[in-house]
Write a structure and sequence with these properties.
Number of domains: 1
CATH topology: Jelly Rolls
Helix content: under 10%
Strand content: over 45%
CATH class: Mainly Beta
CATH architecture: Sandwich
Structural class: mainly beta
Shape: elongated
Largest sheet: 5 strands, antiparallel
Distance between the termini: 6 Å
């Protein structure tokens, strides 16, 4: 039977258009971080989800993409757990919402008994983070 070890949420903005933070094109930016206490865990599994909204000035360059990634750690060079790329659609909408769902399976127990995950957002052009921004993680063990 599965045992819940810990759950965490990082939320910068509960709903759309509730923030206005510039995002420099071409630079991955951390938008959420969650620490999980996994003391006593064995065969650890972590469920992760994230969402972010951005606004891009129009007209959009034809090769504009937004990506969202989850890493186990704190930097873009840490282990990538999940990565999603969203080409900006043909509808040329300047408001884009990106989501990500992932599982990190059979995670080794860290010496500190703490796992840290970070959510990164990237856009190929300058844009504005407008919200919503939320990152969730749940750790289970056998």
């Amino acid at each position: 039977m599965a045992q819940l070890l810990d759950i965490g949420t990082s939320q910068n903005a509960s709903y759309g258009f509730s923030i206005s933070i510039p995002l420099t094109g071409g630079i991955p930016t951390s938008i959420g971080s969650v620490n999980l206490n996994v003391t006593g865990g064995e065969f650890i599994r972590v469920q992760l989800s994230g969402i972010a909204g951005v606004e891009i000035s129009t007209p959009l360059p034809p090769d504009t993409v937004i990506s969202i990634a989850i890493v186990r750690g704190t930097t873009v060079n840490d282990l990538i757990v999940a990565y999603a790329v969203y080409p900006v659609g043909a509808d040329n909408s300047n408001v884009q919402v990106v989501t990500i769902e992932a599982s990190d399976y059979n995670v080794p127990l860290p010496p500190s008994n703490e796992l840290q995950y970070t959510l990164f957002l990237f856009c190929s052009v300058d844009c504005t983070r407008i919200g919503m921004e939320s990152f969730n993680a749940v750790a289970y063990s056998n």
